[in-house]
Write a structure and sequence with these properties.
Order of helices and strands: HEHEEHHEEHEHHHEHEEHH
Strand order of the largest sheet: 2-5-4-3-1-6-9-8-7
Number of helices: 11
Number of strands: 9
Shape: elongated
Helix content: 25-40%
Bound molecules: 1,3-dihydroxyacetonephosphate, zinc ion
Structural class: alpha+beta
Length: 272
């Protein structure tokens, strides 16, 4: 059997969390990632399931998420420490068939457990899997300029999306479905989990005003690339705030959507 610590899953999460830390997005224990791993990949590392302990979820997992394996960052753990000690800072769990318990197969040594944002993660996995069975990653982080931009604009996803699209030509191409926006809410709760998952039905990106952002994707690269593009655009917006004389004309956004055959979020740009 191969050592799961040396798996591509652990190395992908270790590398991206170090990268995100160096972007300045993940102060202290800020940010969390969950990575759905197919059973055929799990079997390369574990001949059969052997559980270290059970962890109560505190909510009921959607049936689509049950009997599935997730590599999840630990609550209170620092992104900067994952690469040097993945076994302490990450855990591999299987959601049981009744949707109430996580069985721990690997990691969380020293008594850890899943991120406090696991309700938002698992509920988002459920909604994204229903839209795209290939979805594998939910990523949450605290990118500085995205948070600044959310603080400067009303909590309106039409306005937020339009502002991003009109600031950077890549924006509409990378996230034509737009960005879901939630107001400031109490984090770590089932309620914010449900609200995030509701937005995930139609968006791969959801911002939490005054807190951070969620990205979803088929891979770590897709989830990170979405967030990175929002953050780059938010940097441009915040640095030009009240100074910009050139914003992207609607015709260019429509032209990009036509060129790339994109289905744009309705209500953002009026087709003339
Ligand atoms: P955790 O340490 O529980 O993952 O929480 C970090 C965070 O970003 C809360 O939103
Ligand atoms: Zn957070």
């Amino acid at each position: 059997m191969k050592d799961f610590k040396k798996s591509r899953f652990v190395s992908e999460v270790s590398d991206i969390t170090m990268n995100m830390y160096h972007q300045g997005w993940d102060e202290r224990n800020g940010g969390n990632i969950s990575y759905l791993i197919d059973e055929e990949d799990i079997r390369k590392y574990f001949r059969k399931d052997k559980y270290i302990k059970d962890i109560e979820l505190g909510f009921t997992a959607d049936p689509i998420c049950r009997n599935k394996y997730y590599l999840v960052t630990g609550t209170g753990k620092y992104f900067k420490n994952i690469k040097k000690d993945p076994l302490t800072n990450l855990g591999l769990i299987k959601i049981d068939s009744n949707g109430h318990t996580a069985h721990l197969l690997w990691g969380y040594i020293g008594g850890g457990k899943m991120t406090s944002e696991f309700p938002a993660h698992l509920m988002s996995h459920a909604e994204r899997l229903k839209v795209n069975p290939k979805n594998r990653v939910i990523m949450h982080t605290h990118p500085t300029y995205t948070i600044c931009m959310g603080a400067c604009l009303p909590t309106d996803e039409i306005l937020f999306t339009r502002t991003l699209w009109k600031t950077n030509t890549e924006a509409v191409v990378v996230f034509p479905e737009g960005v879901g926006v939630l107001p400031c809410m109490i984090c770590g709760t089932e309620e914010i989990g449900r609200a995030t998952a509701e937005k995930m039905k139609s968006h791969r990106l959801v911002t939490w005003t005054n807190h951070g952002i969620y990205g979803a994707g088929e891979s770590i690269d897709e989830a990170f690339g979405l967030i990175e593009t929002v953050e780059k655009t938010a940097i441009i917006y915040m640095l030009t705030l009240d100074h910009a004389v050139n914003v992207i004309p609607d015709e260019v956004i429509i032209g990009l959507a036509k060129l790339w055959n994109l289905k744009m979020m309705p209500g953002i740009i009026e087709e003339k």
